[in-house]
Amino acid sequence: MVRERVPELAEHDAVRFAGATVMVTGATWTHSQPSAAMLAVYETDPEPAAMRLDFTDTLRQLLEVLLTGLLARASG
Length: 76
Description:
This protein is an all-alpha fold. It has 5 helices and no strands. It has helices at about 1-5, 10-30, 35-45, 45-50, 55-75. The chain starts with a helix and ends with a helix.
């Protein structure tokens, strides 16, 4: 599926991208679902609140960076 959408990506890099997508998705989801205690901290202290992750935005950015890096390395 990855190569259907990004045919310039080599097969081994498409597999790496797919595997990394699974890992990054799990990690991002976990960190974007704060506990009730963390939500309370975020509401009272702006410093840790700055570290709060939005799942969709963060995942999109991480996958864009990964894919861009794989493509740049392949063309370099």
